[in-house]
Amino acid sequence: MSTVPEFAYSNLSGRPPGRLVSVAGRVLRGVADVQRDVTPFGEAWQRDNVRALGETGPLWVALGDSLTQGVGAPTHDRGWVGQLRDRLRAGGTPVRVVNLGVSGAKTADVLGRQLPALELLDAALVTLMIGSNDLMRPRDRRGLVERFERILHRLPPRTVVTTLPNPSRVAGAVNAVIADVAGERDLVVAELRDPRLGSWRGRLAADHFHPNERGYQGIAEVVADSITAAGRPLIE
Predict the structure, then answer these.
(1) What is the distance between the alpha carbons of residues 30 and 193, in angstroms, rounded to a whole number?
(2) In the chain, what is the straight-line distance between the N-terminal and C-terminal CA atoms, in Å?
(3) 57: which of 77, 94, 192, 233 fits an S-S bond (Cβ 3.0–4.6 Å)?
């Protein structure tokens, strides 16, 4: 049995929603509906994390934001992490998941909170999906490439890192850094600019921002393929 008695991690940021989300939530029902799931989803992952640490089997640690929490799906475990976990288990890998994702998280949160928590765990697989929230405001875009590079150099080898599908110049620069550092440090790239994710029609939640269960299924497929194509098993 694998336990980490001193591991205490909150999947809630403790910060209020950003101004844009707050305003949109007051006028758009779909935004408010999805935002109401943020706290319950975070609390559900906290409970699941504790349970996973008391079980046996290879441990997958997921780093990220609301997409890693599955916000927009009908339940917290029908986001891409939950769907991929079920897929791996169905394929014969009894994987456990500790999800460190936090809604609203940015690269600074990964550096300050999630990576230190990761270092307490004996992970067989690590995934990182971050950066979307950094792209929303100019002050967060400044230094994003440098922060992302710092994260990449602190990740263990064979970590699966997703690219940013945003077509902006800054996102392109981040993706270039991911490609460069992945080659240097034996990281695995999951390409979210995959043609299979080119159309989001029918794949978005009520807020028209987060994926719904079907959208998360597409992300899970892309990440699963990156694991399969890695050349050797990522989960021993």
Answers:
(1) 26
(2) 17
(3) 94
Residue at token pair 């780093």: 63
Give the pLDDT confidence score for residue 116 in this predicted structure: 97
Read off the pTM. 0.92
Which residues, given as ranges, of the chain have pLDDT below 70? Answer: 1-6, 17-28, 231-233, 236
Residue 32, amino acid: A
Task: List CB contacts of 162: < 8 A, sequence separation 6 or more.
Answer: 127, 128, 129, 189, 190, 191, 192, 223
> Burial, 2: exposed, middle or buried (Cβ in 10 Å; 0-12, 13-18, 19+)?
middle
| HEC profile of 179-213 | HHHHHHHCCEEECCCCHHHCCCCCCECCCCCCECH
How many Cα atoms sit within 13 Å of 86 on the Cβ side? 10
- Cβ atoms of 80 and 219 closer than 8 Å: yes
Q: Residue 43 and residue 34: Cα distance in Å, rounded?
A: 15
- Could you tell me which of 128, 105, 87, 85 has the C-alpha nearest to residue 42? 105
Return the beta strands (E) in the chain as ranges: 59-64, 96-99, 125-129, 160-162, 188-190
| Nearest alpha-carbon partner for 77 in 109, 42, 51 | 42
Confidence (pLDDT) at 1: 44
Cβ proximity of 202 and 93 under 8 Å: no
pLDDT the model gives residue 34: 93
Residue owning tokens 């029902």: 29
Do the bridges between strand 160-162 and strand 188-190 make them parallel or antiparallel, or are there none, so unpaired? parallel
Report d(CA 141, CA 134) in Å as an integer: 6
